[in-house]
Amino acid sequence: MTQPWQTAISLPRLRTIRGQDFLFMYHGDNIMTHWAALHSYKYQPLPHALKPKTEYLYQNRDPNTLWWRVTTNHLSMKKVVRTGSAKKIRKVFREVLKQQGYDAYGRPLAQEHLPEGARLRSKPLRGTLEIRVEPSAITQRESNMKSQMMGLLSRTNRAISDMASAWEKHVPAK
To answer: Distances from the Cα of 164 to the Cαs of 97, 111, 155, 170, 172, in angstroms?
Structure first.
């Protein structure tokens, strides 16, 4: 049975970009996870013990960065497998961001910190990105993961620029 405070939470829809082993879910704004929204909800009869910390984290995060996370909770595997896989995927995604010219938070790297062959970026990545892991990704090699994530991140960058240009068309000039 759902409680009244659970039905009042509505989070925005995320734009989905599907790959073979990963699902990138992106939104242009920095939004809370469903868990954080549920447990920091102010009308809950008994507040969750992590409510103050969760609210503090979301209020003090830099909105000009990419808020990204890896989600493995939906997989029907042991927790140790899910945790190890998420750790490996986070490491690979950080490497992909660096190869694309960004730091771990989506901010552009300085010229002296760029890896060889990476383009100098002028704008940071902003918004929320959730990386959902498919069961087939658990057994993948890091090199295969990296190539898939490079393609997905490029497609996500294109989607971000498309969303920005569509937004500019709908916003009236002042």
So the answer is: 20, 26, 14, 10, 14
The residue whose two tokens read 């990105």 is 129
What pLDDT is stored for residue 99 in this prediction?
Answer: 92
Q: Is 173 exposed, middle or buried (0-12, 13-18, 19+ CB in 10 A)?
A: exposed
- Tell me which residue has tokens 């996370």: 69
Burial class (CB in 10 A: 0-12, 13-18, 19+), 27: middle
The domain ranges of the chain are 11-33+62-99+126-167
Q: Which CATH fold topology does 11-33+62-99+126-167 show?
A: Ribosomal Protein S5; domain 2 (3.30.230)
> In which residue are the tokens 């995927």 written?
89
d(CA 105, CA 129): 11
Distance CA 62, CA 35 (A): 20
Q: Residue 147: which of 86, 95, 75, 78 has the closest Cα? A: 95
Question: In order along the chain (174 residues), what is the average pLDDT of each group of 10 residues?
Answer: 52 83 88 73 68 82 90 89 94 95 92 85 88 92 94 88 71 58
pTM of the predicted structure, to 2 decimals: 0.81
